[in-house]
Design goal:
It is a single chain. The protein is mainly alpha-helical. The longest helix is centred in the N-terminal third of the chain and has 20 residues. The radius of gyration is 28 Å and the shape is elongated. 0% of the residues are buried.
Length: 78
């Protein structure tokens, strides 16, 4: 009996969660739903923006040996 109650609670939780994630099944003979904001679009956009910002806008760092660094110091280029 307790396992049935637990399954019912899980089903209720998932039933409440589905509309928030945009995972509702469409009933037959109904109009398609209007376009809605989905959290997945937001997450993908944030990840894409972060990746592009890191790739294109970050400073390029070149690692050089310490001897070359000392050479640049003596030349006065740094």
């Amino acid at each position: 009996m307790a396992s049935n109650a637990n399954k019912d609670q899980q089903n209720n939780f998932f039933d409440k969660l589905r509309p928030l994630l945009g995972l509702q099944e469409r009933q037959k003979n109904t109009l398609p739903p209007k376009a809605r904001f989905s959290i997945w679009y937001f997450l993908i956009a944030i990840l894409l923006f972060t990746y592009l910002q890191q790739y294109f806008l970050s400073a390029k760092v070149e690692t050089i040996p310490y001897s070359q660094f000392k050479h640049y110091i003596t030349e006065g280029t740094i």
